[in-house]
């Protein structure tokens, strides 16, 4: 078998080398290869665009093709755009850009390659989207490449495009060889195209290592050598994992998104993929090792130090649990994951894989405890194990408290309760109910894992809340401060600004600052520009005081300012609820002061989210906080959903001390800032809602992993095609319910989604009608002719929390409530082409389409707008509320549906066992009765009152019992007659043997009486009479022996300890044998007839003594051991052994291998043991010796 392991290992190494060589030769990372692939994809898209352009004629049906997002077509006739396939291309200078003759240009915020075709007087253009170039990026605004270029999101920052020659740039040409632009790859660029065939080969090699390890351990008999292999394999795996992480090899695996580095490289796990691999290694090593370890439990040192050994194992388990807690804390703190799987809101692939890895790590605890209990079972009693484990857990809980370890009392209690349950399972319960305990243990593990993850996620949330509190207390916006540093650099380097200020042209300087230098797009700050000369003063309207201009700003900076790096900007911390920055610059005799005050965030959704840079930098934490600032106990400012009290005292807490408490369904963190100021940060309690529903998910995953073989399959040669009827019924029920719930869940989600969409569509139309009714009374809605309409639209937008756009009948934007969205190029100035067709050509009264701005999708509603003066337009509302509300409705519905499905699946798992048990119980009862049925015994009938298939089967069984009883009576009668005939024959034979010599002696005496004298006859008579008496005694002994066998004495059963009886019997033969060893386990009690048991033991010991030939030093060994709820008594000798041809007759009456005796001793022993419900047998080897064994049931205390 070790040869097989070597062959598998050799094949795995060859597979690894071949796979690595293939990857190196065909998938190596090379910039020239990347450029070739880039151009190849681009040229393929160009051919597609040219093919479509070739089909265009005088007009193009907008519905004739499924237009791609990254391939846009535009038609221009007489300098006017009349056809387009995507509104995003809308730009006021679109016609000039397309007719300029350039093949690569930037339109709006996107670079396009331009393909052309002219048909008569029409110019058709195909625009291939290459890359976005927004003024800033955020949660919904990202610079992506065209999908056809296959540049992953992770690599976008590593690929730059330039229209001019750059160092290390590669020229990209079109399919005709014309240069378009230059592309530069960053140092950290990596292709995401993992070859899944190579990936499967690497995984096959990885799994082969565990298969080889399993084979080696399985066929190694010495447990010390097994431990050596275990240590070697651990070191090998540790080295392999270090090599893989340090060099990120093999590349095919480390190109997968789950292997992106999340942790610091100083930590032993750097990604979710590494976490999963490492946990899988630990799980596999523990499972394989504990399944195959063969400890020599007779080792004297092990037996002598068994208590220390037991304590050491519990301590190792404790260390692993501490490491397990540390790992969860590490994962939760450093990874952007959410382990509240039941909520499904922030749950992605990373969260699911982390959840599975943590559960697998928890299963290692149960596997280890299970293996430890199996070891304890061979070395000590149940009570002893419980005492040792209890003492150790109490001690370890004190240690964890004293040294502030990750573990605490509940971790130690979990170790204790699992150990106790598994010990009860191993020591006390029968095999048929052991699985229930295993399932209970797995359920407890699920609870434990969820409690631990919730604990560390709560810690993470509190740490993030404290960090957020620090920002609020400092009243700083670190994201905006980065922009201020850039502005500082621009101001210091602007000679134009310096020139305007020095010549006194303050208006020109202010216009330059507002127009070019201070780009605040995406930042919610107002800017106040102040020029101060000597003697200038300021009138403060809020305090009605007059200050010197310079003195005022210098006083604020000196009192509350904190300089930002080495720039001229200062953050002003007053704890008034506002974020303020002041910049100070000196140009000759003039001081320039720039004051930036944060304005209240626009709480609308949709366009305000696009225009905000809030989420541009830093990661999303997934927590939605509310906060309030109190000064002198009065509310100064607040933000968020929670409605704060005007007075801080309403919370009922001491404002001088930090506190964390719950009130009004929120968790509040009260933080004293100074003697007069307090900050309160609040989080809704639904953040951790449904968290304990994760127990069901964890239990479900545990069951799936356990089906691999843990616990449920002691024999790991699993045959899935065969199984008990109970198992097949159970699996069928579970499978059927699972399929039904999957179908019903999918249908429920689909139907509810359709219903939600219909409801939101109706709501959008109602809003559209309301706006239409308000606008149709206006005389003008074109902002170019009547600019005041923009303000009217903005007011309606703020009131209704929607945005409003108005297009001409030609599809051009003429007015909007949010001009910035179009000025910054986030939206095009053209209407959706399909909406234009539906309203203008088909005459529909309303039309709803799906829109998209960056990564934000929404529902866009259109309707004709006809003014009272007869002019008609197209009214549009981008209904962003639908997106969030619909997603929230769908998420809530999915959460409820999926959680109900999981609950029902767990219930199905439990109830399927009960149903299967109920269905198969009559069959099992019938099976048990059939097993017990035997000729000559009492065969009981089955009581079953249901008239079903099983009832008919039971009826046939009962009929068979009646017929069998009749047959037994006839057979017993026949056997009794046959037995008496045989007994008579045996008795006649045994009596006939002494009668023959008696007859001959009497005949000899008669002849002697006639021939010999009296004295001589008397002497002979005495001799003959002695011999006759001896023969008569033999006949009496024969009669007694057969009498004993024919009628056994009635048993008087009692409960007694077998060790005492064995020792007493062994003392009778102590002096008759050179060496008699007695190894007896104490405290084993049985229910039997003490005297009959004594008779059996003495008979076996006597046989053992008599079997030893002359000239050989006799050795008899007696052992008594507990095994699986029974006691084994073994008596071994080193006698001649029993030949093969005689072994079948050894328990038959009248059979003996000795020259004396009736041969009934072993027959009587067998009959006694079987009457006690036990078993007796032997193993023998000729010339070596024989070992008889007796197996009896143990009486539990």
UniProtKB/TrEMBL annotation:
SUPFAM superfamilies, per database record: ATPase domain of HSP90 chaperone/DNA topoisomerase II/histidine kinase (SSF55874), HAMP domain-like (SSF158472), Homodimeric domain of signal transducing histidine kinase (SSF47384)
Membrane-spanning segments: 196-215, 227-247, 267-290, 302-321, 352-376, 388-407, 413-429, 436-453, 689-712, 733-751, 890-916
Swiss-Prot/TrEMBL catalytic activity: ATP + protein L-histidine = ADP + protein N-phospho-L-histidine
Gene Ontology molecular function: any one: phosphorelay sensor kinase activity
Domain HAMP: from-to ranges: 917-969
Occurrences of domain Histidine kinase (ranges): 986-1196
Listed Gene3D superfamilies: 1.10.287.130, 6.10.340.10, Histidine kinase-like ATPase, C-terminal domain
Subcellular location: Membrane
Pfam families in the cross-refs: HATPase_c, HisKA
Enzyme nomenclature, EC number: 2.7.13.3
UniProt cross-references to CDD domains, sorted A to Z: HATPase (cd00075), HisKA (cd00082)
Record keywords: ATP-binding, Kinase, Membrane, Nucleotide-binding, Phosphoprotein, Transferase, Transmembrane, Transmembrane helix, Two-component regulatory system
A single GO cellular-component term on record: membrane
Major enzyme class: transferase
Protein name according to UniProt: histidine kinase
Phylogenetic lineage: Bacteria, Pseudomonadati, Bacteroidota, Bacteroidia, Bacteroidales
């Amino acid at each position: 078998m070790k040869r097989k392991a070597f062959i598998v290992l050799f094949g795995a190494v060859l597979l690894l080398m071949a796979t690595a060589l293939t990857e190196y030769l065909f998938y190596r990372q090379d910039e020239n290869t990347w450029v070739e692939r880039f151009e190849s994809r681009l040229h393929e898209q160009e051919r597609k665009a040219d093919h479509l352009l070739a089909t265009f004629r005088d007009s193009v049906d907008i519905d004739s093709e499924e237009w791609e997002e990254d391939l846009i077509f535009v038609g221009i006739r007489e300098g006017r755009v009349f056809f387009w396939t995507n509104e995003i291309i809308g730009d006021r200078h679109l016609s000039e850009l397309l007719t300029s003759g350039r093949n690569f240009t930037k339109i709006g915020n996107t670079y396009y390659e331009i393909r052309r075709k002219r048909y008569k007087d029409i110019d058709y253009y195909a625009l291939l989207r290459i890359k976005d170039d927004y003024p800033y990026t955020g949660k919904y605004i990202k610079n992506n490449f065209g999908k056809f270029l296959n540049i992953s999101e992770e690599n976008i920052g590593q690929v730059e495009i330039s229209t001019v020659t750059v160092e290390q740039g590669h020229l990209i040409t079109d399919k005709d060889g014309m240069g378009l632009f230059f592309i530069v790859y960053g140092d950290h660029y990596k292709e995401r195209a993992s070859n899944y065939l190579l990936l499967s080969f690497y995984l096959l090699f990885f799994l082969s290592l565990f298969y080889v390890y399993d084979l080696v351990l399985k066929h190694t008999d010495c447990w010390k050598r097994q431990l050596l292999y275990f240590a070697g394999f651990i070191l090998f795996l540790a080295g392999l994992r270090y090599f893989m992480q340090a060099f990120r090899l093999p590349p095919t695996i480390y190109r997968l998104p789950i292997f992106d580095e999340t942790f610091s490289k100083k930590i032993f796990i750097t990604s979710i993929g590494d976490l999963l691999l490492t946990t899988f290694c630990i799980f596999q090593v523990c499972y394989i090792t504990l399944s195959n370890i063969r400890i020599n439990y007779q080792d004297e040192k092990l037996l002598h130090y068994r208590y220390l050994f037991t304590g050491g194992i519990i301590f190792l388990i404790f260390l692993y649990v501490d490491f397990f807690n540390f790992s969860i804390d590490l994962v939760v703190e450093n990874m952007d994951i959410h382990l509240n799987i039941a909520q499904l809101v922030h749950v992605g692939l990373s969260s699911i894989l982390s959840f599975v890895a943590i559960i697998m790590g928890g299963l290692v605890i149960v596997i280890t405890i299970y293996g430890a209990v199996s070891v304890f079972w061979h070395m000590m009693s149940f009570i002893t194990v419980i005492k040792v484990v209890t003492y150790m857990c109490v001690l370890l809980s004190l240690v964890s408290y004293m040294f502030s370890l990750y573990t605490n009392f509940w971790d130690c209690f979990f170790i204790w309760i699992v150990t106790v349950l598994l010990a009860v399972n191993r020591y006390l319960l029968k095999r048929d109910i052991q699985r229930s305990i295993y399932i209970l243990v797995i359920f407890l593990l699920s609870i434990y894992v969820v409690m631990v993850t919730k604990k560390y996620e709560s810690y993470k949330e509190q740490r993030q809340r404290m960090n957020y509190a620090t920002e609020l207390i400092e009243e700083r916006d670190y994201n905006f401060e980065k922009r201020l540093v850039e502005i500082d650099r621009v101001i210091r380097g602007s000679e134009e600004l310096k020139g305007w200020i020095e010549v006194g042209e303050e208006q020109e300087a202010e216009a330059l600052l507002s127009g070019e230098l201070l780009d605040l797009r995406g930042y919610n700050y107002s800017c106040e520009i102040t020029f101060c000369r000597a003697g200038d003063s300021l009138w403060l309207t809020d305090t009605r005081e007059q200050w010197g201009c310079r003195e005022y700003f210098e006083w604020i900076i000196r009192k509350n300012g904190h300089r930002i790096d080495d720039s001229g900007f200062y953050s002003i911390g007053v704890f008034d609820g506002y974020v303020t920055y002041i910049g100070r610059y000196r140009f000759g005799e003039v001081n320039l002061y720039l004051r930036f005050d944060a304005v209240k965030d626009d709480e609308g959704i949709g366009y305000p989210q696009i225009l905000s840079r809030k989420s541009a930098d830093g990661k999303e934490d997934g927590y939605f906080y509310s906060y309030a600032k109190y000064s002198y106990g009065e509310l100064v400012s607040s933000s968020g959903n929670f409605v704060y009290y005007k007075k801080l005292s309403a919370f009922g807490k001491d404002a001088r001390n930090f506190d964390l408490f719950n009130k009004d369904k929120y968790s509040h963190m009260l933080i004293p800032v100074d003697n007069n100021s307090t900050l309160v940060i609040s989080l809704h309690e639904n953040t951790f809602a449904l968290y304990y529903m994760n127990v069901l998910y964890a239990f479900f995953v545990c069951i799936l992993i356990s089906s691999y073989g843990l616990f449920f399959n002691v024999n790991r040669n699993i045959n899935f095609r065969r199984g008990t009827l109970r198992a097949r019924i159970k699996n069928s029920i579970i499978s059927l319910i699972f399929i039904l719930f999957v179908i019903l869940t999918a249908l429920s989600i689909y139907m509810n989604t359709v219903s939600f969409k219909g409801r939101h569509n109706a709501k959008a139309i109602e809003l559209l009608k309301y706006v239409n009714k308000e606008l149709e009374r206006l005389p003008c809605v074109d902002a170019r002719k009547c600019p005041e309409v923009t303000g009217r639209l903005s007011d309606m937008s703020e009131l209704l929390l929607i945005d409003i756009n108005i297009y001409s009948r030609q599809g051009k934007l003429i007015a909007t409530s949010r001009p910035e969205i179009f000025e910054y190029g986030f939206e095009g100035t053209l209407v959706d082409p399909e909406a234009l067709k539906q309203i203008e050509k088909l005459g529909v009264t309303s039309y709803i389409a799906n829109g998209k701005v960056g990564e934000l999708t929404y529902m866009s509603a259109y309707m004709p707008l006809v003014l009272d003066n007869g002019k008609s337009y197209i009214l549009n509302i981008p209904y962003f509320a639908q997106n969030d509300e619909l997603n929230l409705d769908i998420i809530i519905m999915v959460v409820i549906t999926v959680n109900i499905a999981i609950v029902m699946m767990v219930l199905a798992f439990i109830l399927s066992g009960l149903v299967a048990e109920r269905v198969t119980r009559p069959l099992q009862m019938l099976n048990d009765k059939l097993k017990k049925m035997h000729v000559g015994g009492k065969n009981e009938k089955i009581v079953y009152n249901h008239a079903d298939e099983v009832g008919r089967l039971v009826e046939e069984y009962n009929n068979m019992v009646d017929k069998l009883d009749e047959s037994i009576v006839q057979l017993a009668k026949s056997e009794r007659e046959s037995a008496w005939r045989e007994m008579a024959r045996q008795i006649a034979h045994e009596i006939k043997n002494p009668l023959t010599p008696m007859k001959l002696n009497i005949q000899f005496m008669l002849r002697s009486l006639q021939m010999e004298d009296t004295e001589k006859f008397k002497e002979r008579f005495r001799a003959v009479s002695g011999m006759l008496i001896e023969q008569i005694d033999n006949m009496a002994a024969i009669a007694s022996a057969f009498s004993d066998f024919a009628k056994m004495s009635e048993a008087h059963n009692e409960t007694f300890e077998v060790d005492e009886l064995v020792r007493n019997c062994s003392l009778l033969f102590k002096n008759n044998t050179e060496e008699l060893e007695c190894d007896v386990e104490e405290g084993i009690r049985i229910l039997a007839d003490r005297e009959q048991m004594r008779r059996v033991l003495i008979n076996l010991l006597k046989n053992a003594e008599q079997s030893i030939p002359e000239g050989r030093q006799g050795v008899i060994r007696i052992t008594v051991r507990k095994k699986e709820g029974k006691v084994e008594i073994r008596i071994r000798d080193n006698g001649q052994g029993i030949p093969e041809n005689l072994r079948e007759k050894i328990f038959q009456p009248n059979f003996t291998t000795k020259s004396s005796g009736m041969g009934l001793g072993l027959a009587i022993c067998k009959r006694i043991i079987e009457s006690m419900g036990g078993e007796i047998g032997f193993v023998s080897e000729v010339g070596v010796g024989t070992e008889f064994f007796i197996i009896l049931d143990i009486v539990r205390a």
